[in-house]
Every structure is written in C-alpha cells, then in structure tokens.
Design brief:
The chain has a single domain (about 5-220), classed as Alpha-Beta Barrel (TIM Barrel). The chain contains 11 helices and 8 strands. The protein has helices at about 15-25, 40, 45-50, 70-75, 95-105, 120-125, 130-145, 160-165, 190-195, 205, 210-220; strands spanning about 5-10, 30-35, 55-65, 85-90, 110, 150, 170, 200. Strands 1-2-3-4-5-6-7-8 form an 8-stranded parallel barrel. Strand 1, helix 1 (about 15-25) and strand 2 (about 30-35) form a beta-alpha-beta unit. It is globular, with a radius of gyration of 17 Å. About 40% of the residues are buried. The chain binds cytidine-5'-monophosphate.
C-alpha cells in the first residue's frame, strides 16, 4: 500500500534540534521528508548541515520572490545542495517562474500560491481584489503555464486546484488539535489527504513537545 507522505517543517536554528527531529521521526508507517525554511537555512551552520544530509527527501522552502535574473542566480547558487524540492512564490510572475523552472534541473520547483496564514481580510489589506479561492485558482493556472513541478496551497483549495494543476500538491495548514497558531486556512490530516493533497507539511504540531508522541498521534489520527 502507498504510504501517506509528510514533510516535517524543521523551523529552528538549532542543528541539535534538527538532528533530534530527524532521529525521532523515523517510521515505516509514513514517508517522511524534511523541510528547511528561512530560519534554518539562514542560521549559522544550517546550509552546511543540509549539504551533508544523506538518503532523505529534502525540501528547501526559500519562497523565492524576485526578478527573473535574481531567481535564476539564487537557484544556481544552491545547486551544490542535493535537494529535492524548492519553493518560489507564484507572485514572482510568469517570466520568473518559467526561467526558474528552466534552470532548476533535477530540483522540483514548487509554486507557493497564497500563504495559509492569510484570509480574505488579509488579502484586502495587501491590495488584492480577488477572493481567496479565485486568487489561488488563478495562481495555480499560472503555475501550470510555467510547468512547475508542484504547488503549495491550503487543504481547502486542493480539490479545485487539482482541476487546473496536475502535478504534486503540498499543503501546510494542518492541525492535529484545536491549536492553529498563526495559520488561518487549516484542516486535519485526513481532510487534506481526502481532498487530494500529495504531501502534508506539518511543523509545530510535531516538533513542539514530545516528538515521538506527536508522531504517534498523527499516525493514529490518519488511520482513524
Ligand atoms: O508549524 P506549522 O505546521 O504551522 O508550519 C507550517 C510550515 O509550512 C512553516 O514552515 C511555514 O513556513 C510553511 N508554509 C506555510 N504556508 C505556506 C507555505 C509554507 O505555512 N503557504
């Protein structure tokens, strides 16, 4: 049977903590990958640590958002890392997406649609007129046009996104209990998988507190 897939967000600047997260999330019940975002990647020895990880699915969540030339240069600059996934904001624009995809080679280039910490009110604040669902679909179509390898959206949008974007879908905004932290568009793991998500991204619900117990709770939650 195919295993459910999750990326664990290693949002810390401590290498010791990352080692602990990796050690305590070894399981044959799930396919587990590790996501490193701006915090760890920019920490003193973070990049070098990532360069030495072997035999794991590695997702570097840099959320590039820049002019085409800078996106290309940034991707070239991390090519020495044998990473599997890299993110770019779809709002970088079609040209930046296309040239980035061209240069990314074996690294899967993943478009970030609208952050799961934003709701309709927040979108208005930053000057977007489209409502959330429409905006995400619009962004998904653009990502499809640029032939991106995957897309990040909330579990709420997956069903509709899949109609216009046929590659991998990765969803953060996963809650295991009533705590949602700073996320707005959230769902349970099963809801996200049921909607068609290929990978879930889970951070604090796993990495805060007792990691082994949190993982057990997640596995139980999925198999319920
Ligand atoms: O702790 P939590 O499970 O909320 O972490 C979610 C992770 O997913 C964080 O690392 C965050 O940067 C990332 N992410 C997100 N929303 C997006 C893209 C990435 O929450 N749209």
């Amino acid at each position: 049977m195919k295993k459910n897939k999750i990326f664990i967000a290693c949002d810390t600047k401590s290498i010791k903590k990352v080692k602990k997260i990796i050690k305590e999330t070894q399981t044959n019940k799930l396919k587990v990958g590790y996501k490193f975002g701006l915090e760890f990647f920019n920490s003193k020895n973070g990049r070098s640590f990532i360069s030495k990880i072997k035999g794991k699915v590695i997702f570097v969540d840099l959320k590039l958002c820049d002019i085409p030339n800078t996106c290309i240069s940034a991707i070239k600059a991390i090519k020495d890392l044998k990473i599997n996934y890299l993110t770019i904001h779809v709002s970088s624009g079609l040209d930046a997406l296309k040239v980035s995809k061209k240069i990314s080679g074996k690294i899967k280039l993943i478009g970030v649609t609208t952050l799961t910490s934003l709701d309709n009110k927040n979108l208005k604040q930053i000057g977007y007129n489209k409502n959330l669902n429409k905006l995400v679909i619009h962004q998904a179509k653009l990502a499809a046009k640029a032939k991106l390898d995957g897309l990040v959206c909330s579990p709420h949008e997956v069903k509709n996104v899949k109609k216009v974007f046929k590659n991998e879908i990765i969803t953060p905004g996963i809650k295991l209990d009533s705590k949602i932290n700073d996320q707005k568009r959230v769902a349970t793991p099963n809801e996200a998988y049921k909607n068609g998500s290929d990978w879930l991204v889970i951070g604090r619900s796993i990495t805060k507190g007792n990691i082994k117990n949190n993982l057990k709770k997640l596995i139980k939650n999925i198999n319920k």
